[in-house]
Design goal:
The complex is a heterodimer of chains A (376) and B (464).
Chain A lengths: L2 H8 L1 H17 L8 H6 L6 H10 L5 H5 L12 H16 L12 H23 L2 H4 L8 H5 L2 H30 L8 H13 L20 H29 L11 H26 L7 H26 L6 H18 L7 H22 L1
Chain B lengths: L1 E10 L3 H12 L4 E4 L16 E3 L15 H12 L5 H11 L2 H7 L4 E2 L12 E4 L3 H14 L3 E3 L2 E9 L2 E9 L2 E12 L8 H8 L7 E2 L8 H8 L4 E2 L5 E7 L20 E3 L16 H11 L6 E6 L14 E3 L2 H7 L4 H13 L1 E2 L12 E2 L18 E13 L2 E2 L19 E3 L17 H22 L1
Parallel strand pairs in B: 1-2, 1-9, 2-6, 9-20, 10-18
Antiparallel strand pairs in B: 3-5, 4-5, 7-8, 8-9, 11-19, 12-18, 13-14, 14-18, 15-18, 16-17
Helix pairs in contact in B: 1-5, 1-11, 2-3, 3-11, 9-10
The chains are: A mainly alpha (376), B alpha/beta (464).
């Protein structure tokens, strides 16, 4: 039995609800102007497990179709695409997680994130206070290599490397398995598909509602979710770039942190941290304020947990930058590294993976749309 | 009983009611809109709509080419067979030219016509997400303009003295409130949700009709106005009726219950006999007549049958087709006489003159020497599996209503036109323009045009 069959078997009710929803939508089609999901639905008449998994991951949860639906609850058809697709997405993340035993972490996303942060910070603080002198930990360090006074160089290199390698391995295996199951029509990837998918991601096209926005919180059209998502994504990417540049500085140029405020790693990190902080805070507020009806309860913990981690990483990083020349540096470094450690440990089992599966769905969507154009 | 005052009371909560409310509120009047339906079902039949038909002399960003007044009028005359008020028809068409701009200004988003829109991209403007999304925007605008929008609230017991509206009773969850208003707008739909009125109009057969839209349109205010000397327009049995999937719910099945398989196969009645040329004409004429055709068959039911050659040629149905590998088994599933159905199919197959099948034109596939001919798209029903859908008449809305003038003022016996303070808009008065037949999207056009006119008329009355 393939993973996608197992996915349906394990969620029979959700999949049969999704399939019935799609059959009803396909006889209506009023929502075809909203996003890519409905044109993709119209290309199909029957909906296999794999089709439903694809459509669910293609859905950006804009909720336009829910607010427009003449068949939304309490209508007896009870159409609620955002809710049923969100549920399938979370089940997809669990089914394709590697090693699969750890997929349990998706069930309690918020709790797991909180525990991971607490444990990571606790562990780092404990090790610091156990292995280094109190006056070093609470001292003021201004020179090159100041951070290594608190956390030794070897640990600062080995631990993140090990975690990153594991995360990359885990996510790669999940990606490969997902691709095999979702790509039922054996699409050969072309450069043009990837180009379209990347452009979709960089502009978050499917959460733009063709420029007027989406139903982020209620039936009002806004761009808030799109903008905050992009702040978060670009912020995350800039922070990642900052770390990469710093690694090059450290290993190849033999320049050790802390770097000057106007240096490339600090500039990238500062801008990235600010964007990430604004974006994750905004997304948390939007999530908290939005209409509960089209949401899937199952996904909320995962969403809140991941946003909390991102916000924590960004804001502790900014605090560390501000107070790095004071005696609070040691404690702030430990707390910041605690958040970073927790984020990367949880990466393959967090909302982060939505980006991977959605990207694949966008590639498949690009191939289908380009074929449509060729036929017309 | 608590008593409240406002300038304008509007009964109904759909497109016509809100267009009126917004127009009046923009002129500074205090407006109350009372919809009988609960919040999630608010908006009458607007909730099930998708577009409106709009005249335009040049291509717009949402409609292609042009659709000029003359052509629009000809289309209307053709479907109504002249059952229209010429003056109001021209007014509706001329005013339709402003509608997309006006609605856009009220926050309604439009979309280019796509796949499921049945080639109306030239004549009709499509709301992004359909009628409910349109309603959401109208309600937002109305609320921003301080219109008081009530749900779950019925307007009852009109107090009309000397042919003028004085007050009414609003009933919300058994709590009654007296409401005094200077003008009154009725935009609360037709009476298709009223089973006893439908029976009066159609006889016993109406029990087998399905109502495609809201169950809340029961025509109470139309009847009350007629009892108060308002002049009636339209006949009780005129309505927009189509053939829909018989398995659809009694009310609120909406657009999904439509089925366009008829030209691809045959339609038989309860006795297993064909009764009308399935290949006579294209949608929308076909769409508009099959509801009545089925209403005139025994037990008001029909069965559309196609074979596997055609199954993917039309939009998927909301309920899966009933399926079997031979005609007799198919008949058994739905309790038709298997021998008779088999004979009907064999006779039909034997009468086919082979041609080049093309469902986009009136092709040369037809039947010969058969009692009920099929004049186009006739192909043998011979390739298993065979598919069947039961069909019932589906009523969209009724045309009997209140006669109005060009200011949407309700015409009342013994009252000089221009003096009245009662106005009507939407399906309550659509029969003035649409006395018979149907033209896709014209219900929403009449609703918005006369909603705005009623809002203006009531405002002018209140101001004078």
């Amino acid at each position: 039995m393939s993973l996608v069959d197992l996915l349906e078997t394990g969620n029979v009710d959700t999949f049969s609800k999704a399939r019935r929803n799609m059959e009803i939508c396909n006889a209506c089609r009023y929502c075809e102007g909203y996003c890519a999901v409905f044109p993709a639905m119209e290309r199909r008449r029957l909906f296999s497990s794999s089709d439903l998994m694809h459509l669910s991951n293609l859905c950006h949860n804009c909720q336009g179709c829910y607010h427009a639906c003449q068949y939304a609850p309490p209508h007896e058809y009870g159409i609620n695409i955002p809710e049923v697709f969100s549920t399938i997405r979370v089940e997809t993340y669990k089914q394709y997680a590697w090693p699969n035993q750890l997929s349990l972490m998706f069930n309690k996303g918020g709790l797991i994130a909180s525990v991971a942060v607490a444990v990571s910070i606790g562990l780092i603080l404990f090790l610091c206070l156990y292995f280094i002198q109190n006056d070093t930990f609470f001292g003021i360090h201004l020179n090159e290599g100041a951070f290594y006074k608190i956390v030794p160089y070897n640990i600062m290199v080995l631990v993140p490397s090990a975690i990153s390698i594991f995360a990359i391995l885990s996510i790669s295996i999940s990606t490969k398995r997902f691709w095999n199951d979702v790509n039922q029509s054996n699409i050969k990837i072309k450069f043009s598909y990837i180009k379209t998918a990347i452009s979709d991601v960089l502009t978050l096209k499917h959460l733009s509602g063709r420029s007027h926005g989406c139903n982020d919180i209620s039936d009002k059209f806004t761009q808030w979710r799109r903008f905050h998502h992009q702040f978060t994504m670009y912020g995350f990417m800039l922070c990642f770039a900052s770390t990469s540049v710093a690694t090059i500085y450290d290993h190849f140029l033999n320049l050790q942190a802390p770097y000057a405020y106007m240096s490339i790693p600090v500039l990238l990190g500062t801008i990235g941290g600010i964007l990430l902080s604004i974006g994750s805070t905004g997304l948390l507020i939007i999530k908290w304020k939005s209409d509960p009806e089209p949401q899937a309860i199952k996904t909320l913990g995962l969403d809140y947990g991941f946003l909390f981690l991102l916000k924590g990483v960004a804001e502790t990083g900014l605090l560390l930058l501000i107070f790095r020349e004071t005696s609070a540096m040691g404690a702030l470094l430990a707390i910041h590294l605690g958040f970073v450690l927790a984020l990367f440990l949880l990466l393959p089992y967090s909302k982060f993976v939505h980006g991977i599966y959605r990207f694949i769905a966008l590639i498949i969507n690009a191939s289908e749309t380009q074929k449509d154009h060729l036929q017309n | 009983m608590e008593e409240i005052f406002c300038d304008i009371l509007i009964a109904g909560g759909g497109n016509a009611a809100l267009s009126a409310a917004i127009t009046a509120a923009e002129k500074g009047h205090s407006v109350i809109v009372a919809d009988r339906a609960p919040y999630h079902m608010r908006g009458g039949n607007t909730r099930h709509t998708r577009n409106l038909r709009a005249m335009h002399n040049n291509p717009t960003n949402i409609m292609s080419d042009s659709y000029k007044e003359d052509e629009y009028y000809e289309d209307l005359i053709r479907v109504t067979e002249g059952n229209t008020n010429e003056k109001l028809a021209h007014l509706t068409i001329q005013k339709s030219a402003e509608l997309t701009d006006w609605l856009f200004d009220k926050g309604i988003k439009f979309q280019p016509a796509l796949g499921g829109t049945l080639s109306l991209g030239r004549t009709n403007a499509f709301f992004l997400g359909g009628g409910r999304a349109m309603l959401n925007a109208l309600y937002r605008t109305a609320i921003r303009l301080k219109v008081k929008c009530l749900c779950d609230t019925e307007v009852l017991k009109l107090n009309i003295i000397d042919n003028k509206f004085k007050s009414a009773v609003l009933k919300e969850n058994d709590i009654e409130t007296k409401i005094n208003a200077k003008a009154f707008i009725i935009a609360s739909g037709g009476f298709q949700g009223n089973e006893s009125w439908m029976k009066e109009a159609w006889g016993d057969i109406s029990k087998n009709f399905l109502i495609r839209g809201t169950p809340y349109n029961t025509g109470g205010l139309i009847r009350e106005m007629l009892d108060n000397n308002a002049i009636q327009i339209g006949k009780a049995n005129q309505c927009h009726a189509v053939a829909i999937d018989a398995r659809a719910p009694k009310y609120d099945g909406g657009i999904t219950s439509r089925l366009d398989a008829v030209p691809f196969g045959i339609v038989v009645n309860k006795d297993g006999d064909r009764f009308y040329d399935e290949g006579e004409d294209f949608w929308p004429k076909r769409y508009a007549i099959w509801g009545r055709l089925i209403a005139s068959q025994p037990e008001q039911i029909g069965y559309c049958i196609v074979d596997s050659k055609s199954i993917n040629s039309f939009m998927p149905s909301v309920f899966p087709a009933i399926q079997a590998d031979d005609i007799k088994s198919l008949a058994n599933i739905v309790n038709l006489d298997p021998k008779n159905l088999n004979r009907t199919v064999n006779n039909f197959n034997d009468s086919i003159v082979e041609g080049d099948f093309n469902h986009t034109i009136l092709d040369n596939c037809y039947t010969k020497n058969i009692n009920v001919p099929k004049t186009h798209w006739a192909r043998k029903i011979d390739t298993a599996p065979f598919y069947l859908w039961p069909l019932r008449p589906g009523i969209t809305f009724t045309y009997l209503g209140l006669k109005v003038n060009e200011n949407a003022e309700v015409e009342i016996k013994n009252l000089t036109i221009g003096d009245g303070n009662i106005f009507a808009a939407g399906e309550t008065m659509a029969g003035n323009v649409l006395g018979k037949g149907y033209l896709a999207g014209i219900g929403m056009t009449i609703g918005t045009v006369f909603g705005r006119l009623a809002g203006e008329g009531a405002s002018n009355y209140v101001s004078s």
